[in-house]
Automatic annotation (TrEMBL):
<dbReference type="GO" id="GO:0016884">
    <property type="term" value="F:carbon-nitrogen ligase activity, with glutamine as amido-N-donor"/>
</dbReference>
<protein>
    <recommendedName>
        <fullName>GatB/YqeY domain-containing protein</fullName>
    </recommendedName>
</protein>
<dbReference type="InterPro" id="IPR019004">
    <property type="entry name" value="YqeY/Aim41"/>
</dbReference>
<dbReference type="InterPro" id="IPR042184">
    <property type="entry name" value="YqeY/Aim41_N"/>
</dbReference>
<dbReference type="Pfam" id="PF09424">
    <property type="entry name" value="YqeY"/>
</dbReference>
<dbReference type="InterPro" id="IPR003789">
    <property type="entry name" value="Asn/Gln_tRNA_amidoTrase-B-like"/>
</dbReference>
<dbReference type="InterPro" id="IPR023168">
    <property type="entry name" value="GatB_Yqey_C_2"/>
</dbReference>
């Protein structure tokens, strides 16, 4: 099922259930995807859709951090619910071990031996884990393995 169709189906379900948080998140996702489609000038590929959803997830995680720092537990709880909803539409995330294996393969493939070649390894790893792993986790693993 196409992502847009799934979002429409879930939007209807959220409306019937009077789920305000779910409704707001799904509308936000649909809007972000529509805006990205207009900017691109063509229908989005699956990878482009995942990139948009990943951006939405990242924004909510950053908001969660800010709400937690500001002692706004009410907003933090709502944002946590939003994060769970966005994650439903993203592919299953890779485990840290799986990411570590991909990093090892990229280091071997690129022949990187020092931290100076960090960018080269990241360039090889990121297309493989796009939308499936957090960039901060990948960065931390690459740094650890190159040092």
């Amino acid at each position: 099922m196409a992502l847009n169709d799934k979002l429409m189906e879930d939007l209807k379900t959220a409306m019937k259930a009077h789920d305000k948080v779910g409704l707001n998140v799904i509308r936000s996702l649909k809007s972000a995807l529509t805006n990205a489609k207009i900017q691109a000038g063509h229908d989005l590929s699956a990878d482009e859709e995942i990139a948009v959803l990943s951006t939405q997830l990242k924004q909510r995680k950053e908001s969660l951090d800010e709400f937690t720092k500001g002692n706004r537990q009410d907003l933090a709880d709502e944002t946590q619910q939003e994060i769970k909803i966005v994650q439903r539409y993203l592919p299953q995330p890779l485990s840290e071990q799986e990411v570590s294996d991909i990093v090892d393969a990229a280091i071997t493939k690129t022949g990187a031996t020092s931290a100076k070649q960090f960018g080269l390894v990241m360039k090889a790893v990121m297309p493989q884990v796009k939308g499936k792993a957090d960039g901060a986790v990948v960065s931390r693993l690459v740094k650890a393995k190159l040092n």
